[in-house]
Amino acid sequence: MTSLSCEYQTNLFNDVTIKIDGVSPVITSHNLPIVNSAPDTFHINLRFSEGLNPDSVNTDSVVVKNNSGNKITNISISYDSNYNAININGVTDSNYLIRGSNYTVTLTQDITDIAGNNLEDEFTGTISIAASPQIPGNGSISTSNYNNGYFVEPGDSIYITFNENIATGLSSAAILSKTTFTPSPSFSGITVSISGNQLIYTIGDVGTNADTYCTINLSAGDFYSAVDGTACQVQNITFSTILKAVKP
C-alpha cells in the first residue's frame, strides 16, 4: 500500500484542511556521464527533490543497457532514503562490465515519490569503461599536506591516483628509476608503495628547498589492473611540487 504525502493547513477559522502532494519528483544532482571508469568499482549517484517510494526503484525503472541495447543485470541498484538518492554500483566479483564499452543509464517515469507522483521526466546518462588502467590527469595528483597545495615536507606523501585498483611486478627501485625531479633535490630517503588505486611516494628528509617538476614515465605493462590483470598502457605525467627541507 502506498502512503500519501500530505500537508496540514489551517484557515482563518482554524479549520484544518489537507493538501495532497501533487508535485512530481525531479533529479537535483548526478555524476553522469562517467568517462573511463573501472569495470567493477564505479558508483553512480542521483539525488532527488523529495523522498521516493522505495518499491518503485527496481530493475524495471532503473535500466542499464550495453552497446547492443541489451539490458544488463551485473550491477547493484539501491535507494538511500536519508539522501533521497538512487545508487548504482559496479559488482566486485568476476562479472564486471566489459572494457572499452559504453553503457546507457535510464531512469524511467515509473519511479514515484511517496504520494505516487511519477518522475517528472525520463532521465538518460552514460558511462564508459576504460580499456585499461590509467592516470586520468593532473587532477588525480594530491599530497598529504593538502592545506599547502603541492608543498611536500619531510614525512609527507605524493599520491598518484589511477582510475582503478592497480598492482605491479616492479620493485620500488625500478619505479623510482622512472621518476625524475627537475631540478633534482637531495633526498635522504624516498619510498614507493601501492594502496588500492594509488601509487604513493613518501618523502624522507629533503636536503634543500626546491621548487621542482616531477615527471613519471611508465611503460606499457609496468602496472596492471588488480581486478582482471589488464596491462596499463604508457602513462606520462608531469606536475609541479614545492619540496620543503624543514616543516614550518
Can you give a write-up of this model?
This protein is mainly beta and 248 residues long. The protein has one helix and 20 strands. Strands 3-5-8-7 form a four-stranded antiparallel beta sheet, with no helix packed on it. Strand 7 and strand 8 form a beta hairpin. 25% of the residues are buried.
Which short descriptors sum up this protein?
single chain, 248 residues, mainly beta, Immunoglobulin-like, four-stranded antiparallel sheet, four-stranded mixed sheet, 1 helix, elongated
Would you kindly provide a brief summary of this structure?
This protein has 248 residues and is mostly beta strands.
Count of alpha and pi helical runs: 1
Q: From the 3D coordinates, which CATH architecture of the largest domain would you assign?
A: Sandwich
Helix content: under 10%
Name the average pLDDT: 87
Main sheet: which strands, in order across? 3-5-8-7
Instruction: Profile the largest sheet.
Output: 4 strands, antiparallel
What is the level 1 CATH name of the largest domain?
A: Mainly Beta
Strand content: 35-45%
Could you spell the SSE succession in H and E letters? EEEEEEEEEEEEEEHEEEEEE
Q: What is the total number of structural domains? A: 2
Termini separation comes to 64 Å
Q: Helix/strand-derived class?
A: mainly beta
Let me know the number of strands: 20
Instruction: Assign an overall shape.
Output: elongated
Rg is 25 Å
| CATH topology type of the largest domain | Immunoglobulin-like
